[in-house]
Amino acid sequence: MVLTSFSQLEALVKGSAEARAMAVAVAADPHTLEAALAARAEGLVRPILVGDKAKILSILSEMGETVPDADIYDAPEEVAACETAVALVREGKADFLMKGKVDTKVILKAVVNKEHGLGVPGAIMSHVTLFEVPAYHKILAPVDGGMVTYPTLEQKKGIIENTVAVLHKLGYDCPKVGVLACAEKPNPKMPETLDAQALAEMNRSGEISGCIVDGPISFDCAIDKSIADFKGYESPIAGDCDVLVAPNIHAGNIMGKMLVCFSGAKMAGFIAGARCPIVLTSRGSSAEEKRMSIILAAAASRPEA
Amino acid sequence: MVLTSFSQLEALVKGSAEARAMAVAVAADPHTLEAALAARAEGLVRPILVGDKAKILSILSEMGETVPDADIYDAPEEVAACETAVALVREGKADFLMKGKVDTKVILKAVVNKEHGLGVPGAIMSHVTLFEVPAYHKILAPVDGGMVTYPTLEQKKGIIENTVAVLHKLGYDCPKVGVLACAEKPNPKMPETLDAQALAEMNRSGEISGCIVDGPISFDCAIDKSIADFKGYESPIAGDCDVLVAPNIHAGNIMGKMLVCFSGAKMAGFIAGARCPIVLTSRGSSAEEKRMSIILAAAASRPEA
Fold it and tell me: Is the complex ipTM higher than 0.85?
């Protein structure tokens, strides 16, 4: 199975027996509460609010909304709020995290805490992003444009594993992963092409599994079979990639932004690699992106996933 | 003046008193001759064919075309053909070069030859590409996705100078140049952001002139003023960039390919930094891309430019 549209992602969440519990860390913020309660109104999640309770109640009252008292945790100080939200996940009371009005660093610090956090031994954390692109025949996941700056070979492996794990949870059997470069030939003067070759080899040897990895591959061969055929680039992933691994954060970031600004794409994303998804949308994210990111995180944390 | 469409570029060429002379190096190739003669048929250029004359005549005859004998130079061997084409430019008999069926390396070797070539002291050669992007309000030039692999600060300066010089020849007064990164803040852990800052400073101090350079800037701030405003990024180039400097060849290459494959963009490009444009389209380039690249090179080598 592969996803061809975000509406299928939404159907996964709505088809789930029970709404996922989303712990919102530092929730005393109108933008954050609007996104969380809009998702609740659609039956997508059950928000659990962690933060300055008095402020939260005051904002909710202004919005004309209520949240059961048991689902509001008073933690006025932001470090404590993040720790409480993390603890809720550890205790099984919440299924995933959403960042409220707090620096990404602060919430991630609580997440990576060795004793009380949500770290997964051996895993790295990376930004998994999915795009619905009008010009492409299915959902496309370019990674990583927001978290790992200059991934080493080992980190690229981690980025692939995180992304593939998310896709598996969404129902994919064997995602096709292209490791991007400017060309298809490994070239000792371009380390990215050697990394790509090494990752493909790790996949063939079974070190990276549950997916097909190939590369180096140029962007056009990765998404257009006719171009790959013309160039004589043969691979099961040619023209049909689900995942595109960017050489570094700059390329990944440019790709994501081009998709939205120039290709009419819609985006959803979260931080993967911890024991649950962490939704990190910012105040600048559109309401639609926040909504789709919550849906994606909810879909990836379904019990049946 | 800024260009908003490729049709304006075409008008520049058609408005020129005389068709530019295009020396085609290693012209004995049907694809190359088709592109050259299609451009001639539109009155865009006067092709001068350099290569295996017997083969050229045979292909022309199959195409039902003729070229004045004085405009065919017999040079069956490809190194000699490239050197002859370069010599034609040096002698003022040709205005720019087009690569035929020959490796890029071979023609560039003739171009950079210190004694008989077309090098410009102190300049680097870089790929200047222009895109007509449906979702953008004017022509956009992301550079360099095809020539300089990992540009140093000095090479990025050269890339900017080459691109700005081409835009000046097309009638631009003061192109707006954004140096891309994943964010707007200089960060010592991300050398690209420091290079961007240094290039902006070189521009303010007058070391890079005839344009406005700013950065580091993220892609969305570079092409969408409302996003820049929202992020509080203030710059005369915000949302209005003509030129986008990619961190390296991989990012630049991905950008160009995304524009064409996912954003419905049309492309034109040539190698700049030598004494004349060098059109390097490959057999894989679409007929439209070849045509627009010839038009761009002709426009940039007008005597009035």
Answer: yes
Residues from chain A that touch B246, judged by Cβ atoms under 8 A, are 254
Pick from A224, A250, A262: which is nearest to B192 by CB? A250
Question: Chain A contacts of B262, Cβ < 8 Å?
Answer: 133, 135-136, 223, 258-259, 262-263, 265
Q: How far, in Å, are A176, B23, B40, B98 from residue B27 at the CA level?
A: 41, 9, 14, 9
What backbone torsions phi and psi does residue B24 show, to the nearest 5 degrees?
-100, 115
CB contact under 8 A, A254 and B249: no
Q: Say if residue A69's pLDDT is above 90.
A: yes
- B97 strand-pairing partners: B23, B278
Taking only the tens place, the pLDDT of each residue in A227-279 is: 999 999 999 999 999 999 999 999 999 999 999 999 999 999 999 999 999 99
In this structure, the number of other CB atoms found within 10 A of the CB of residue B154 comes to 10
pLDDT band with cut points at 50, 70 and 90 for residue B60: very high
B181, closest residue in chain A (CA to CA): A250
Question: What CA–CA distance (Å, rounded) separates B120 from B112?
Answer: 9
- For CA atoms B260, B263, B264, B267, give the dihedral sign: negative
